[in-house]
Amino acid sequence: SQQGEEDPQALSIQEGENATMNCSYKTSINNLQWYRQNSGRGLVHLILIRSNEREKHSGRLRVTLDTSKKSSSLLITASRAADTASYFCATDAIQGAQKLVFGQGTRLTINP
Amino acid sequence: GAGVSQSPSNKVTEKGKDVELRCDPISGHTALYWYRQSLGQGLEFLIYFQGNSAPDKSGLPSDRFSAERTGGSVSTLTIQRTQQEDSAVYLCASSLVGTSGDNEQFFGPGTRLTVL
Asked: Can you tell me the distance from the alpha carbon of B35 to that of A3, in angstroms, rounded to the nearest whole number?
């Protein structure tokens, strides 16, 4: 089964609102990353959080990591129409030989 | 500098034909990855190259799939006797694997393969 599982699968909010997406995983990890994908093509790296970190910020992004619950959340504040995309979490498992295991993604739609 | 490039961007083929997909990683990146993404799904790991080490082929779905990386740079993913279920976007990524274990991957735009 998938290492990373995001929820919700789809999220639709109004511009200016905050968007929260969650990710759960199964095995011990080195780090967890969030990626964004527009129009089903290449992914863009957003943020990486290491297993010994609990929270990280980058601009309007805030990521939390709870290794005891094996879960992470991505918060996008003050959303914009341009944030409309699919968001994926990816884990770099300790035993995973550097390969990333991706979840199914959350499709985020920001309505103007 | 230039990012990861892939070619072709789109490929339409008939069932049973062979296809080759190409990936040019970022110069200096020692690690290269191939993923497959079916419509509306997450990414499925296929294969991973790291320097001169033996590749991790654990994600290849069948023996019809193979990949090579020549000279530690360009990689080719080959699918023989294509089937309709091979239709997907094939994504390549590269990374500069450091000692810290951080593994930010930089993705190419993908090749959309359609098998008729």
From this structure: 15
- Residue B87 above 70 pLDDT? yes
Contact B75, B68 (CB under 8 A): yes
Which chain A residues touch B113 with a CB distance below 8 Å?
A: none
Q: How far is A109 from chain B (nearest CA, A)?
A: 15
Shortest distance, CA B92 to any CA of chain A (angstroms): 9
Calculated CA dihedral for residues B9, B6, B97, A52, nearest 10 degrees: -10
Q: Does B25 touch chain A (CB under 8 A)?
A: no
| Residue in chain A nearest B103 by alpha carbon | A98
Within an 8 Å CB–CB cutoff, is residue B33 touching chain A? yes
Question: What is the CA angle A12-A65-B40, rounded to 5?
Answer: 40
| pLDDT tens string A3-23 | 567 888 899 999 999 999 999
Structure tokens at B72: 């530690």
Closest residue in A to B45 (Cα–Cα)? A101
Q: What is the pLDDT of residue A29?
A: 86
Radius of gyration, CA atoms only, chain A: 13
Q: What is the DSSP string of B9-49?
A: SEEEE-TT--EEEEEE--TT--EEEEEEE-TT--EEEEEEE
